[in-house]
TrEMBL record, chain A:
Protein name: Stage V sporulation protein SpoVR/YcgB, involved in spore cortex formation
Signal peptide extent: none
Residues annotated as domain SpoVR-like C-terminal: 449-501
A Pfam match: SpoVR
Region: Disordered, residue numbers: 214-243
NCBIfam families: PRK11767.1 (NF008737)
Domain SpoVR protein-like N-terminal span(s) in chain numbering: 13-445
UniProtKB/TrEMBL annotation, chain B:
Name of the featured protein: UPF0229 protein SAMN04487958_11044
NCBIfam families: PRK05325.1-2, PRK05325.1-3
Family label: Belongs to the UPF0229 family.
Pfam families linked: DUF444
PANTHER family in the record: UPF0229 PROTEIN YEAH
Highest taxon above the source species: Bacteria
Annotated region described as Disordered, given as residue ranges: 83-111
Record InterPro entries: UPF0229, vWFA_dom_sf
Taxonomic source organism: Vreelandella subterranea
Amino acid sequence: MNATHKPIATGSDWNFSILERFDAELARLADEYRLDTYPNQIEVITTEQMMDAYASVGMPVGYHHWSFGKQFLAVEQAYKRGQMGLAYELVINSNPCIAYLMEENTLMMQVLVMAHACYGHNSFFKGNYLFRTWTDAESIVDYLVFARHYIAKCEERHGVQAVEQLLDACHALQNYGVDRYKRPSPISAEEEAKRQDEREAYLQTQVNLLWRTIPDSPEGGESLPGSLSPEEDDPLGLHSGGRYPPEPQENLLYFVEKNAPLLAPWQREIVRIVRKLAQYFYPQRQTQVMNEGWACFWHYTLMNRLYDDGNVDEGLMLEFLQSHAAVINQPAFDSPYYSGINPYALGFAIFMDIKRICEAPTDEDRQWFPDIAGSPWRETLEFAMRNFKDESFIQQFLSPKVMRDHKLFLVVDDDQEETLEVAAIHNEQGYRRVRDALATQYALSVREPNIQVVEAAIRGDRSLTLHHVQDSRRPLARSVYPVIRHLQKLWGFPVHLISMEEGRVTRRYRWPVEESAQSEE
Amino acid sequence: MTYFIDRRPNAKHKSAVNRQRFLERYRKHIKRSVEEAVNRRSITDMERGEKVSIPTKDISEPVFQHGPGGAREIVSPGNKEFLAGDKIQRPPGQGGGSGAGEGSASNQGEGTDEFAFTLSREEFLEFVFDGLELPHLQRKPLKSLQEIKMVRAGLARDGVPARISITRSMREAYARRIAMRAPIKRALREAQQALETEERKDPVLRNPARITELKAEIERLEKRIEAVPFIDTYDLRYHQLAAQPQPSSQAVMFCVMDVSGSMTQNHKDIAKRFFLLLYLFLEKHYEKVELVFVRHHTAAREVSEEEFFYSRETGGTIVSSALTLVKKIIDKRYPPEQWNLYVAQASDGDNWDDDSNVCRDLLIKQLMPQLQYYAYVEITPHDHQSLWQEYETVAARFPEQFAMRQIIDAGDIYPVFRELFKRRLSQQH
């Protein structure tokens, strides 16, 4: 500790000028480490406001829906019972980056949250390729405002209940409202509002074209719907035969928005809003370990620097270490506190380990990570942060040492076997197997069932057919029925869902349920 | 670059709408819980919220998920003694393992069976009194100044500068400018035309004097147009406020109870619960509710709440003494045109035989015309006596305002209360 330096503040009380001085110091350090961040907007809020923010998944403005109310009640209950420490951090991927500080936190917590959220998460949002590609930090807040107003307007015009039912249906499908491989066009509230009427009309003509059944060539007289297709009438080639859509569609909500026969224009717009927001949150779901690991790495590094430079005293540092240790604690699988792998712990361990491999590589590291062993750590970390998601990050950077430290082991649970089998553990033979399995565990494509639209019967009964590509005989949970019921409401005609494994049909679901099928359930 | 913003003074209850939506959606479930709670709790205990739980499956938000079954691989931390190839017995009661990798989905999935949350006191009472309504709810106007509300009432020509209506003032000014300029403009046009005709004439025929005259006239008129003021005090309009009397938001509730020897403490407890329910209910409808406790045996007295419920007396019963006292108190302190008056009476039905018809006459002639509502509960498992029969005639005369029910034990209170105050749609019109 630098003895000549006086700490910026001691004790647990804080005020705005103290926070500003800490922020200035953190900003200086972040600059020294070349952390590239959006400007920060730090908002000091009350407990209740924090619960509000939690309930609306951190969106600073959200539209109204009962599910957010349920979320609020759950958070409130947990908080009142003391089951949950509120708000270690809550930060919004926007420009400026909005972070919340809760008024009743101690000084240490405020500084920690600033380091974690305003410099850790913030730089992750700005740097990681998924966020760069899929989200638009500039316009998200405006878009949320637009969405809120639009939905409120719909409630006024069409009734709260109609809007609520529609939102229920959209929420059920929102994980399937994202484009996984195609970059979406950026969202902008202004543009949205401006183009909206135009789009409503346009969308409707598209849909009408698709579902048109009355021939419109007067001289042809008897021509059938399937056979008429002058180029200019059918630019999409929808009626030129073959199945529609020609390729399976993974974005169910997009497909519904563009093709559902009976939706009114305002309903399509709401489907679009839910889809856009799902898309916005999509990168967060794919970078949990990395995002938290990165933020923990930086709060740890920055707090230690504050201490080394004499800006905080031992008391604050001890309080910090206790809090930090709680956050990155990983209970063992057989502990009563175990609730899955702690993304903070895993991410922090991997980032710390990358730094170690760069600075003090062992022979094992040289063998496993020839590219990065001994390289400058700051560049390597930056590279890892920018170019990966959880799945590939674990595959690439989970080292044998971290697996040993966490004592990771792999269990195979096959319902055709009587016992579970330990397939691999943290040893020379098992490292690769464990790492592969853990990476897969974080792949969204594996975590969520793979379901796509394969056919809309545009010339038949207008039913919609989906395929579920099953893997390792893992069936769909029973929630499939309410979900396809929601989908059926959106689509307006019967919905079929077929589970397939290796080309074989394993199970069929449909809504409305057929008489004979009901007994089966 | 960092900005600090203090959001603490900002609007609270941002989630209030969502919370209400949730409560509305699960109304049926919550009502069931609340009704159970009401039956379980003592009525004195109504002043707090209630924990309500709803089966999770009823409120889940379904998404496509993997179900149990099939083969899956799970990576877990904290290995102690396992080696590759070890076989482990399945943990009991766990179908196929819930899978560690399901992330946040498992928090709300099949994990817990009940979704529990706490209703606030207001929300709780809302559900307790759901579907109930004060019969004959007629708010009385109040003359005193406190109950007057200032409301916007059109525009006036004078007022204080702070209340100027700018748009209206400008509109007036515009109208005045048009009106004042029109005749001048007309004259100007005529003068210009005359000048033009004059100038078009053959130079010989021109009248130079006339031309000079016209030119002077035009100049004068133009000046006059310019002189019309852009805005004048005459144009100003002010928002006007008018005093509007507000419907009375105060009520007084008379609790009348028999404390003669035949009333046991048990009877009194039952009566107390009934009074409390009524009080809470009135409190929801009126900003201010005053309580007057009148107890009686052969003579009536106004007493404090404590004394009302807990001191014991003996002796005979003359109900009319209490009614006379209520009437006196009303006349003295609660003029009916300013107060909404409610009387709740509890008794075991005993009365002096000669007194019951006195009560009837008192009620019909003097009290009932002034009251909003009179609720009588008779706490007795026995047959009715003369008081009940006389009251029945009162009820026949004032079917909207007079209600009577029999209560046998504490469990009846809430149902009876609900019955007394349930929304009577059919009778309303």
